[in-house]
Specification:
Pathway: Porphyrin-containing compound metabolism; protoporphyrin-IX biosynthesis; 5-aminolevulinate from L-glutamyl-tRNA(Glu): step 2/2. Belongs to the class-III pyridoxal-phosphate-dependent aminotransferase family. HemL subfamily. This is Glutamate-1-semialdehyde 2,1-aminomutase. It is found in: Cytoplasm. By secondary structure, the chain is an alpha/beta fold. It folds into two domains: 174 residues, Aspartate Aminotransferase, domain 1 (Alpha-Beta Complex), CATH 3.90.1150.10; 247 residues, 3-Layer(aba) Sandwich (Aspartate Aminotransferase, domain 2), CATH 3.40.640. It has 15 helices and 14 strands. The chain has a seven-stranded mixed β-sheet with strand order 4-10-9-8-7-5-6, with helices on both faces. A four-stranded mixed β-sheet has the order 1-2-3-13. Helix 14 packs across helix 15. The longest helix is centred in the C-terminal third of the chain and has 23 residues. It is globular. The protein starts with a helix and ends with a helix. 4'-deoxy-4'-aminopyridoxal-5'-phosphate (PMP) binds next to helix 4.
């Protein structure tokens, strides 16, 4: 029995399903989850000492690669001064200023400790600002696990077949309208009927929770337009896309403005951080400057702020995003070529350093229905083939993959060599 198998058996006795976040359990792909022991740059090592090239990168935060020495050093030095104060610190303002300078349409920002808290608070704020209750989200988009947003959700909820979780009161679920991502016509129809009741649209500007699905031209623009027309707010959930698809996130990449932006993952450099921010007149409604309550014992945690600040500083290196994007393109184009050569129906998507691949005969995947129609058993066989040969991919076909600044040309080539072998086994 491998050490991971032993650890998984033991974990299941005291932790539901043996994991603290469902997708980690390998339910989608089968088999035993790999227990990690350490990570460095593009690599992770499991509890048996086996090394993998990692394309999950902690589900996005590690855009510099794991355990970047400068980030680790900052964390150690900051920790020596205390782990949490529950009082304001200068660092919070420094990180807030940095985000407001870098992220378009962000005048003010509030820090929280997870993406879930960021989106949950953003929704409450949008409801308070507009004095309306209904919200629109898109099927297959995941915005964390707060009640209003766990309706037809993506990621682990979709994988486990509980996109709308039991436990969410029906009266609350009734206020969440779920539409088809990339279907502008449907959005317009919905607003024509209910526009004056809709507080906000929340959207992953590039979806990373039903695999990777970018917006079709005009879709994000349509969302902006209807929100303006009907006095609703547009929330871009950039928890995944922020500092990932481009330095200025999806707003910068697509040139569409949101009213509220949620962030997480990269801005904490691997420490637990989330944030929501946006227009000053909206953000001023948050307590204590306004009446909309929101709080957190560990919010603005000094070590997390320091890790985030150092990470953002390192992302400013000249050409960082160009290189990251080029490596991602090289990987997905390489995979496409190998699949074509092997005669396996396959297509890919990527924006910046977020990518996805699909076992399907569709030329391009742009919506939820197409994602759901992909060949899951073939994905699972590919996943396990890669895993056995030392490449760690997201353990479910409904998840995006992530490149880091630490992945080298050799890592990409090694991955493609292994992929060629695995494709050959899938014929
Ligand atoms: N929004 C998006 C777009 C996400 O991808 C995630 C998590 N993957 C969340 C929100 C929730 O963030 P967290 O897991 O930190 O609560």
């Amino acid at each position: 029995m491998s050490r991971s198998e032993e650890l998984f058996l033991q974990a299941q006795k005291t932790i539901p399903g043996g994991v603290n976040s469902p997708v980690r359990a390998f339910k989608a792909v089968g088999g035993t989850p790999v227990f990690f022991e350490r990570a460095l740059g593009a690599y992770v090592w499991d509890a048996d000492g086996k090394q993998y090239i990692d394309y999950v990168q902690s589900w996005g935060p590690m855009v510099l690669g794991h355990a970047h020495p400068e980030v680790i050093n900052t964390v150690i030095e900051t920790a020596k001064f205390g782990l949490s104060f529950g009082a304001p610190t200068e660092r919070e303002t420094t990180l807030a200023e940095k985000l407001c300078n870098l992220i378009p349409n962000m005048d003010m920002v509030r820090f929280v400790s997870s993406g879930t808290e960021a989106t949950m608070s953003a929704i409450r704020l949008a409801r308070a600002f507009t004095k309306r209750d209904k919200i629109i989200k898109f099927e297959g988009c995941y915005h964390g696990h707060s009640d209003s947003l766990l309706i037809k959700a993506g990621s682990g909820a979709l994988t486990l077949g509980v996109p709308s979780s039991p436990g969410v009161p029906a009266v609350l679920a009734d206020h969440t309208l779920t539409l088809d991502y990339n279907n502008a016509e449907q959005v317009r129809e919905c607003f024509a009927k209910l526009g004056d009741q809709i507080a906000c649209i929340i959207v992953e500007p590039v979806v990373g929770n039903m695999n990777c699905v970018p917006p079709v031209p005009g879709f994000l623009e349509c969302l902006r337009e209807v929100c303006d027309q009907y006095g609703s707010l547009l929330i871009f959930d950039e928890v995944m896309t922020g500092f990932r698809v481009a330095h200025k996130g999806a707003q910068g990449h697509y040139g569409v403005n949101a009213d509220i932006i949620t962030l997480g993952k990269v801005i904490g450099g691997g420490m637990p951080v989330g944030a929501f921010g946006g227009r000053r007149d909206i953000m001023q409604m948050i307590a204590p400057s306004g009446p909309v309550y929101q709080a957190g014992t560990l919010s603005g945690n000094p070590v997390a702020m320091a890790a985030g600040l150092k990470t953002l500083e390192l992302l400013e290196q000249e050409g960082f995003y160009d290189k990251l994007c080029a490596r991602t393109t090289e990987l997905v184009e390489g995979l496409q070529r190998l699949a074509d050569e092997a005669g396996i129906p396959f297509t890919t998507n990527h924006v910046g350093s977020m990518f996805g691949f699909f076992f399907t005969s569709e030329k391009k995947v742009t919506n939820f229905k197409q994602v759901m129609a992909c060949d899951i058993p073939r994905f699972n066989a590919f996943f396990h083939g890669m895993l056995a040969r030392g490449v760690y991919l997201a353990p479910a076909s409904y998840e995006a993959g992530f490149m880091s600044g630490a992945h080298t040309e050799q890592d990409i080539q090694a991955t493609l060599t292994i992929a060629a072998e695995v494709f050959a086994t899938l014929k």
